[in-house]
Design goal:
The structure is a homotetramer of 302-residue chains. The first copy, chain A, is of the alpha+beta class and 302 residues long. Chain A is 19% helix and 36% strand. The first copy, chain A, has a six-stranded antiparallel β-sheet with strand order 8-7-19-16-10-11, with no helix packed on it. A six-stranded antiparallel β-sheet of chain A has the order 15-14-12-9-17-18, with no helix packed on it. In chain A, strand 2, helix 2 and strand 3 form a beta-alpha-beta unit.
Chain lengths: 302, 302, 302, 302
């Protein structure tokens, strides 16, 4: 029986420096299996070897699956690429479970056997889009699988900004900035800012102020169909930066408006059989291993 | 043109002791208008006056609208009553805006004119149902428009319990208890326990541990279609209590299982024109009036 | 050279059921060394063996050192006992590092060799005293090495109470209760309620509201020379319980006043060489093992 | 009887643009009273009028009291200036109570009558000193009455850094930065980052991580005699900025060490009779005005 995916793009972080072994192993395995392989033309020769290359932005057109080798950051980049071609993404981690990259390097063969035979689960994850408007001009736009974030550029100055949801005035905030996070991003930066964990199947967006001046300025969860606008106020000439998944999008000035909404497409994540969201959460957040008051072993569900 | 609602039940808190003036005014107005009025048979004679009475649990059958006079607690009780007859609820507060009771006593006439003429907005709010199981026996069950809560009964003892969502093991918790809150309840007790504010239109449930021993044991937002089970563990004979909207449901013992899910019906809240959720939020949480660093007036959305 | 401590009292939790092996090993070692040993007369015969016994409340008079075998709870009890006789306390844990019990069972010999030869560090820890007053009557009083806590008894009812520091009005609180914690207790229950970690050498008391209704009602750190008074208000007949280190002291009614201040004596903790507070903190709080974003190994200070 | 202070320096924010009326009134009053007055030579002519001027850094030598007109930021600057000459500082706010500037413009006459007659309270507040070391070179140093803060300069990059207290390794942190706050600063930026409120008489420093990646990385309160060192690690070339009370001190690179300790002098704050710290706290944090659950009026201590 033919494999479910025939052309597979491989992406990695840091030019593959930390993951060369895993990439080699992956390429060998896929070749054996008869898959076509394509890598980014920007990768160094010692990573690519004899494999085909293409410009990064064409990978999603050429392939029908992207395998990202690295941490969650690599997965985020791969997912944004994949979303343009509507193809799925699979993640191989660097030897430690990621929120997104859930295949361990030492189980590549077993896991890919399953996935390529069609034995996998597909999950659709919300993708956010941010547009920065200056008057009637669209200054910049970008995607965030985790989040779209506004942060102050001059550390010693507070930002002041107003938020609107579906055109309704919500609040005027003072503080270090603002996060609009997808459920995927709810366990990333937003969690460090007091946001809740949101189950990835939810059509929800977390709006979380960063170090808010007002103590009652708490995270709000809104429906993913709602759009959010943030208007930067002029507070002692403070400046801000907008980023998507930690990638710089644009500088934000007083009067600018950042419009955030769900992107038209979703990210398709592929998991080999056995994946369970709460297992990953428990592992990543040290749940069930309370050292302040060690009880019985709480890591099994029994 | 005939009024949209012809028979109106009136409920109040504390036997109406603090709200007699408002109830009198309301009854006078409704009589003038020609509405039929029915009150709970449990209310004292000086509140009821010449109005018809009926047992509280029949109000929702007899009336096609409940008007609750009092605070948000009165609204919660009225809403649970109303949900059985699938009739809507309208709230008149005690002179200060409530999250749920949003008509001020001094605007009764104007607001009811609008509402009875059909000029109003209806909102459907999630209702939670909790069932306490001891082995195969259903020990108790109840509703919560705000929340279903487990709290320890002996203050000096920690509880230990496991949570499952849709049958999947989530976590083993140590602490003072556990809250499953609807979006409505997200601004009540759950907010004091570090939970997020959830927009009332969302089909979401907030699962929040109370004073959790593990610092990474943070609130989780799950879809309203998901069911949650909490199993109490035996931790030094600690005992717990289950309540719905603050009303006692049952004592919970080690081995007991509390099953929480969305109730079959929703609560229908009625608001006169002009109601806006974020306005209420802003008013109740002192948003936009930051006294630590007073900026310009931030209460207008302009 | 003679040992620094000649008569040693041994205490344990749960009648020694989980720690019999360790107690046996400890008794054998102390006997070899020629120490006099005394245990609580309440312990079962199989724990005591041939050792001398005395009523628990006399242990601090008879001995010049208490060794507590068990968890931090056992240490707290031992410390309150020891404080009356002004003798020091040493803790042997159940195989896992405690905040207070820092000798592992498998290093008893080496550690006690050092301690009994006088090679140890002594730390003085703040002890709190709580007095419950009803009008002019002292209803109950007790000690807390960790904390003095007020908790509501009826889970579904909020408490309302006022706090005063050195007679100055501080705040009116609504919520689940109130904690006055010593620096030692700052890593216990108060930490779960949003309190800071306070270095144990500090003369400080943490006042932390439990699940406060007002979001700006945050923990306050005051000097240990300051006294705190909490007055319970009448809020829908709610009742509360006062405890010291989790041990019941008294029921607290509306109008009652709880007076909290530093006790006249301090607890003397003994640590074998090598003890470092921040090492314990790091181990107990999983610091430096961030699984959300695994960096390099962060557990060494280099 | 002669006034307690004979030469009075006046400072203000923003070149006095928002406070001209108050400064005029203050100068008139002081002149009547026969005080010598000195203002910063950097202020515009329309503010200074006929008063004497001197370079800002000489004000503390020339005067025996500084009166700061403006918000808490103006007070912080004045206090750092005053600390060099060991003279006290008094604050007149812009019409709204500040944490530090507690005289209202409309009570200038009454308050200054009292203060200049010697009827006032003096409070000594901790002042922090930060020194940035690059190898053996002192790159920069500065004071903070509120705090010494490290913040990331590139918003999209996390910082990684190690902390040591009195040379003992404490933790390796990932996040947006780090705050060392005095008790005065505990109600400023540190409060927005989850820190406790620390009574101003305490000899304590709050060490608070900013948006820490690890959820158990909580604020720690240490004695003011302890010194803290923060070493910046190399994390993807991230850069940081060090500031004191929000004033830029230096850029901090990987390998740099920031040394923080109590400055040799304290700030002397002067309050007219009737000042009470908890009253200010209650007013600034909206305590006792709980709009989520409005109880009786809680603003009086009775």
């Amino acid at each position: 029986m033919a494999d479910v995916f025939s052309t597979i793009a491989i992406t990695c972080s840091n030019n593959g420096t930390n993951t060369k072994d895993t990439i080699d192993q992956l390429i060998d395995y896929l070749r054996e299996r008869g898959s076509r392989i394509v890598l980014s033309a920007e990768l160094p020769a010692e990573i690519v070897g004899a494999a085909d290359v293409a410009p990064e932005e064409q990978l999603a057109e050429l392939a029908d699956l992207i395998i990202a080798v690295g941490g969650d950051g690599t997965m985020l980049s791969a997912a944004r690429l994949a979303s343009e071609g509507q193809i799925p993404v699979l993640g191989i981690n660097r030897g430690r479970l990621g929120f997104l990259a859930d295949i361990s390097p030492n189980e590549i063969k077993e896991s890919l056997d399953q996935v390529l035979s069609g034995n996998f689960a597909t999950e659709k994850r919300l993708l956010l889009k941010g547009e920065l408007w200056r008057g009637d001009d669209l200054v910049a736009s970008g995607l965030g699988m985790n989040d779209i974030v506004i942060k102050r550029l001059e550390p010693a100055r507070m930002l002041e900004f107003k938020t609107y949801v579906d055109g309704q005035y919500v609040n005027t905030h003072g503080g270090d900035g603002f996060i609009a996070a997808s459920p995927t991003g709810s366990t990333a930066y937003a969690l460090s800012c007091g946001g809740p964990i949101v189950h990835p199947t939810m059509d929800a967006i977390v709006l979380a102020p960063i170090c808010p001046h007002t103590l009652s300025d708490r995270p709000v969860v809104i429906p993913a169909v709602a759009s959010t606008d943030v208007i930067m106020l002029d507070y002692y000439d403070s400046k801000a930066e907008v980023s998507g998944d930690g990638e710089f999008l644009a500088e934000m000035l007083a009067g600018d408006r950042l419009h955030i909404e769900a992107a038209g497409t979703r990210v398709q994540l592929i998991h080999p059989p056995g994946y369970e969201y709460y297992d990953v959460l428990r592992e990543k957040l040290h749940w069930g291993t309370d050292r302040r008051n060690p009880l019985r072993d709480k890591n099994s569900g029994q």
